[in-house]
Structures are given as C-alpha cells and as structure tokens.
Design goal:
single chain; about 375 residues; alpha+beta; four-stranded mixed β-sheet
Length: about 375
C-alpha cells in the first residue's frame, strides 16, 4: 500500500510540473536555522496531515504548488504551535512572516480572505477581553461578599443575587455582540472559506432559514467546507419535526451494535435523549426524565439515552448513579449527533409511534407539558 501511495504521489508531482501553480507562499523565518523544516498541513479528524514541506534557506522559505481550497496550518520543525491560514487556490501569492517563538505574532498578507478573518478575530478578541474582565470582577466581588463575616446570611444571599443580576445586565449585551459579529461575518463571507469555516465552528449562530440562505450564496460547492455545509442542511431537513427518524447504529453498554430502529417506529412513543456524564445541565435534567419515565412508561413511553461521553466508565457510572433504567447507546464519534444536528446537550427528541419526530429540544416544563399532551392528561 505504501508503494502505491508513493507511486501515486510521484505521478501527481510529475503531472503538476507542467502546470501553473495555484498558490505561492513567500516566507520569512527570522531566527530559524537554515535547514529547518517548514510544513503545511491540513486537519484530518483531530490530527494534522502534512501535505507539503520545504527547508529554510537564508532565513526564507517558499511553497509553490497545488492544494485544494481549504484551511491549512504552517508549523516549524516538530513544533506544536501552528499558524492557520486559508488557501483559496486562485493563483494567489501569500507573504508570511513567521515568529517561531510565538506563532500568534506571525503575519499573513496578500490574501483578502485571511485579512478578513484576522480582522474578525480581533473584533471577537476585543469582546472576549471585556467578558473576561467582567467575569474576573464578578468572581472577586462574589468572594468578598462570601468572606464578609459582618453580613447576616439573609443579607449575603441578597447581595449575591443582586451581584449576579447586575453582572447579567452587563454580560448579556456582550454575549449578544459576539453572536452578532459571528452571524454578520458568516453572512458577508458566505462564498469564501473564512465565512464557511466560522459557520462550521459556530453553526448554531444561524437559524435553519438563514442556513438555507447561506447555502444559496455558495458558488463553489466542491470545497470541503461547502460539502460539510450542504450535508448539514440536508441533515437539518431530515431531522425536522414531522420527518421520519434517521436510523443510526451505535454500541450499547455491552459494546454490542444496536440500531435506533430497535426502539423507534415500533408502536410506542420514544424519547431519544442526547446527554453526557460530564454535562452539568444534562445531569440536572435527568431527575425530570426519570420522573417522566416512571409516569408514562406503562402507558407506552420508551427512552433511549445517547451518550456523548468521551470515555465509557464515567458514562456507565452516571447511568447507575442517576437511576437511568432505560436503554443506552454510546455516540462516541458523534455519528448520531451529526445526523440529528445536535450542537448542544441535553437535547431530547420525541418520536411518535410511527417513528416521526414530534418535537426536539424538550426539557423541563416543556417536556412535561408535551408528554401530558401526548398521553391525554
């Protein structure tokens, strides 16, 4: 297999020699020894896969070749610090100045897409710094109130509540500003890699209707980002209310593969609960789900827990501790979460007897009210 890969790589290199390069990177790496390897990599799952490399000569380096339009990362030697950049593949010429001591201080010029993304990051960072300062002040004030021995307990509770309320008044506009900046950037850059990348990092920033508008604005649907966005829109449509369930197969607590269709569409109402042992809101919602199971199970309600845990033991321990006596499967790799467009947990779906989606995002009082409606109470 390795020989075949090398043969294909060599063939591509020979083919490319007679073609015009679709990108060039002229780089400066001050303070980096000659002969040091500079690599360009792309994300492959959670790993970086090197796609090209050159050596530093007289403090400079140069990349010249073909790459599909995507987000890439420049690394120096075996360093873990990376410089991300977008390569559109339109015969662009980028000038890069590397700071090997702190890659965040490196600069990229010659690319409108990268310039826009850097400007967006600076705006977001400015808001993030305001939020950081606000939270630091909140924590300091909270400690001061808790450690004030002159306060009666009732007064301490009152002051803590007032502090929380006043902090929320300041925090909420800042959080909304971050969301607004993100949404505006995505919509203004729908047809370039930067806008598409930001969307894929924060897909919940857009409503389903706004997602359709985003897709309509994408002219080149062959890029990896565009394909992922199109796939998400398809999954959004398939997992909307009224749609028949999408079947997925995951391992249960005994490491046996089980299909969702084992329970859904079999003549009972089924709650499919996306959760995790490490998720605080999920664990706080569990008593409510347990109560609903106890109340309606004999009337025709089943529950399937879909775990987003990273490790198996904490998941099994949480099942036992929280008394979750229903069926469970492990969505370790996010297959089900992707199919059902689950960006946050807990997210609970209700399926009817035929396996159609009745509602999604149920919790608390909404869950209780929906089940009372379904079972005629």
């Amino acid at each position: 297999m390795k020989k075949l890969i090398l043969f294909l790589a060599a063939g591509l290199t020979l083919f490319s020699c007679g073609q015009k390069a679709n990108y060039t990177i002229n780089g400066t790496a001050t303070g980096v020894a000659d002969g040091t390897l500079i690599k360009i990599s792309r994300a492959e799952g959670r790993d970086l896969l090197a796609v090209d490399s050159v050596k530093v000569e007289n403090g400079t380096f140069k990349f010249n070749g073909f790459l599909t339009a995507d987000r890439y990362f420049i690394t120096v030697a075996a360093g873990e610090d990376v410089l991300p950049l977008f390569i559109q593949g339109n015969e662009e010429v980028l000038d890069v100045v590397l700071d090997s001591e702190n890659m965040r201080n490196s600069t990229i010029s010659g690319s409108d897409v990268n310039d826009k993304f850097v400007a967006f990051q600076k705006e977001q960072l400015a808001v993030a710094e305001e939020i950081k300062a606000l939270m630091q002040q909140y924590r300091a004030d909270m400690v001061a109130i808790k450690e004030n021995k002159k306060l009666k307990e009732a007064d301490r509770v009152k002051q803590l509540k007032a502090l929380e309320d006043s902090t929320d008044v300041k925090y909420n506009p800042l959080d909304q500003k971050k969301t607004d900046l993100t949404k505006a950037f995505i919509q203004e850059n729908a047809n370039n890699l930067a806008g598409q990348y930001v969307f894929l990092q924060t897909p919940y920033a857009l409503s389903n209707e706004e997602l359709e508008t985003l897709v309509a604005a994408i002219q080149d649907t062959t890029t990896n980002n565009a394909k992922k966005i199109l796939e998400r829109l398809d999954n959004v449509k398939k997992s909307a209310d009224g749609q028949l369930f999408v079947d997925v197969t995951l391992n249960n607590t005994e490491d046996q593969p089980v299909a969702l269709s084992t329970w859904v569409g079999k003549g009972t109402y089924v709650l499919v609960d996306f959760w995790a042992s490490w998720c605080g809101p999920c664990r706080r919602e569990n008593p409510n789900v347990v109560a609903m199971y106890q109340k309606y199970h004999e009337k025709g309600l089943d529950i399937v827990g879909v775990s987003r845990d990273r490790a198996k033991e904490p998941w099994l321990e949480a099942i036992e501790k929280d008394g979750l006596v229903w069926n469970h499967v492990w969505d370790k790799d996010g297959v089900a979460a992707k199919a059902y467009v689950v960006d946050f947990i807990p997210t609970i779906f209700l399926f009817d007897k035929e396996g159609k989606i009745v509602a999604r995002g149920l919790h608390g009082e909404e869950l209780r009210a929906k089940l009372a409606e379904v079972f005629g109470e």
